[in-house]
Amino acid sequence: MNRIAAKYVFPLTSPEPLINGFVEFEDDGTIVRTGICEDPSRETVFCEGAIVPGFVNAHCHVELSYMKGQFRKGTGMAGFIDQINELRDNKSLEEKVRDLTEAMDSLWNQGVVAMADISNCDDSFAVKARHPMYTRTFLEVFGTEPEDCDAVMEGVRKLKAVADRFGIDAAPTPHACYTMSPELLTAVSAEGLRSGFLSFHSEETEEEEEMLKNGSGKMWENRVKAGMSVPPVTGKSSLLYFIDRLLQGHSAPFGENILLVHECCMDQEGIDAVKAVMTHPFVAVCPLSNLFIHNALPPIGLMRRNGLKVCVGTDSLSSNDDLNIVDELYCLQRNFPEVPLGELLTWACRNGAEFLRKPEFGTLEPGKRPGLVLIDHLEDGHLTASSKSIRL
């Protein structure tokens, strides 16, 4: 039997911490019990920080780790896409695998036990197959030309077959409204939903909304200039357009776990539409990526008032300086100080585990093996700029 105590222990069965709490666990990490120390001074191991369950990174593109430090900040989504097109595949496969392995190892050492990851190719499959971190891989597709729909679907099915051979959980998923023809958006969503999961970049930027609502703006102009087809101008938000396309291939209600990533432009109309058709919606916020690209943040207050299940992701090293869940939480705390630390940790641990349907993670409850993580350098129960996490 092992025992560790800390000033704060967050079992996350509720957001409130145990002050001067302890965790007892077996050698294999299985939680035996949690409680409050009778006398903290008599504990063999007592930490001044917070003990929490392992994190779940709800949105990452680990295969893009080779792009770290190469992107200009504040370009908006149109400028960011231009950089992606310019810099993609500027390293060898060996270098890419080295960089993504280093990124996954770093996430693991910081306490990430599971990840919802985006893949456009099979670069990361071998690493995921042998890594101790659990990953569910969303095989993301693009394709603006309607006539290419069948070929794109054939390609993603072949990629799924490769993932199956590596023994990793993977299924197709759409990228975003602005990178897909209506036909492809419906086809790949219907196929992905058969796995029980979908991940979708939604309402990440006002440029996306301007494109769908009005047929204008930098993203629209870039597509027209490149001779690419553009999505239909609906006068609706991209989230409402997405729901319309889902309904073309799958009748409501949607009982699958659907992850809406970013949602910087989410409004009450969109939330009402989501609740009307989705039984298990989740939102993955990636605040540092949003600030990196277009200096905006999601409407956290609106999401909380509507009871949305928020998760936390890091996005990729093309749009972030680091892949660090504690840094994401500190950013959220700094910009939304009304959100208590226990709630932020619920987003980063419990909600992500629920999205992935991995009940063994997310909380410090007897019988579970969620991993134990120490967050240090807290101040009055709050994160600080110096706060870091380490796997125990």
Explained architecture:
By secondary structure, the chain is α/β, with parallel strands linked by helices. It has two domains: 1-53 and 358-392, Urease, subunit C, domain 1 (Roll); 55-323, Metal-dependent hydrolases (TIM Barrel, Alpha-Beta Barrel). It is 37% helix and 23% strand. The strands form three sheets. Strands 3-2-1-4-13-14 form a six-stranded mixed β-sheet. Strands 5-6-7-8 form a four-stranded parallel β-sheet. Helix 9 links the parallel strand 10 (254-262) and strand 11 (278-285). The longest helix has 18 residues, at 93-110. The chain is globular.
Record keyword descriptors for this entry.
alpha/beta, four-stranded parallel sheet, 2 domains, 37% helix, 13 helices, 392 residues
Output the number of helix runs.
13
The largest sheet, given as strand count, sense and whether it forms a barrel, is:
6 strands, mixed
Structural class: alpha/beta
Major sheet strand order: 3-2-1-4-13-14
Mean pLDDT, as a whole number?
Answer: 97
Describe how the helices and strands are arranged.
Elements (H helix, E strand, L loop, with lengths): L1 E8 L8 E8 L5 E6 L9 E8 L1 E6 L15 H12 L5 H18 L1 E8 L5 H6 L3 E8 L7 H18 L2 E6 L7 H12 L3 E6 L3 H9 L3 H8 L12 H12 L4 E9 L5 H10 E8 L1 H8 L5 H6 L3 E4 L12 H11 L5 H16 L15 E4 L13 E3 L1
Parallel strand pairs: 1-4, 5-6, 6-7, 7-8, 9-10, 10-11, 11-12
Antiparallel strand pairs: 1-2, 2-3, 4-13, 13-14
Helix pairs in contact: 4-5, 5-8, 12-13
